[in-house]
Write a structure and sequence with these properties.
By secondary structure, this protein is α/β, with parallel strands linked by helices. The chain has two domains: 63 residues, no CATH class; 108 residues, Glutaredoxin (3-Layer(aba) Sandwich), CATH 3.40.30. 43% of the residues lie in helices and 16% in strands. The chain has eight helices and five strands, in the order H-H-H-H-E-H-E-H-E-H-E-E-H. The protein has a five-stranded mixed β-sheet with strand order 1-3-2-4-5, with helices on both faces. Strand 4 and strand 5 form a beta hairpin. Helix 6 runs parallel beside helix 8. It is globular, with a radius of gyration of 23 Å.
Length: 187
């Protein structure tokens, strides 16, 4: 029989009962059940088994603690989401024409380092409210020619503008370099 025979419920359920992640723990980590703060019956769909419900709750609570999404977060940060080539060109012209301080953050949803650095970018955008951060997902349709003109070949890439000109560029998720560049240019 093929590999899918292992996934039959008759074979999978004994494995789950024997290796229940909510009852076992490693030496360094508490059992998963201790991490769940909300009673299972209050917030989970009724069709989930107790084990599935516990895992569902664990991940849903973890996602409220820290999001790794690269979408813009509402709040006092000044991050502007760029959705099209027209918006990107308009923003670049605005920053250059009005000599505005700005950071252009080129990212992608699938990019691990981009997700890693995003919470730090949010912090910096709050610390420097006079600097607008423009967030551009390189996978948005129609951005190809603008990205080529700007020489964006990897993500994350940051372009820093001061006095209407590109003052610095960082390629990669280097939090220290990002912080130092922001302090140098925008204090």
């Amino acid at each position: 029989m093929g590999r899918t025979s292992l996934l039959r419920p008759s074979r999978l359920l004994p494995l789950l009962r024997h290796n229940n992640p909510l009852q076992t723990s490693s030496r360094n980590a508490p059992p998963l059940s201790s991490l769940i703060k909300t009673p299972i019956s209050q917030t989970t769909p009724s069709f989930l088994s107790p084990l599935s419900a516990s895992i569902f709750l664990l991940f849903s609570e973890a996602s409220t603690l820290r999001t790794f999404s690269s979408s813009a977060v509402a709040g006092p940060s000044n991050i502007v989401l760029i959705e099209s080539e027209e918006e990107l060109n308009s923003s670049l012209n605005k920053v250059q024409g009005n000599s505005l301080p700005a950071v252009f953050y080129f990212t992608a949803v699938w990019c691990g380092p981009c997700r890693f650095i995003y919470p730090f970018i949010e912090e910096l955008s709050k610390k420097y409210p006079h600097v607008t951060t423009y967030k551009i997902d390189i996978d948005k349709e129609g951005l190809g020619s603008s990205l080529s003109n700007l020489q964006i070949f990897s993500v994350p890439t940051f372009h820093f503008f001061q006095n209407g000109e590109k003052a610095a560029e960082i390629v990669g998720a280097d939090a220290t370099q990002l912080k130092n560049t922001m302090e140098k240019l925008y204090k």
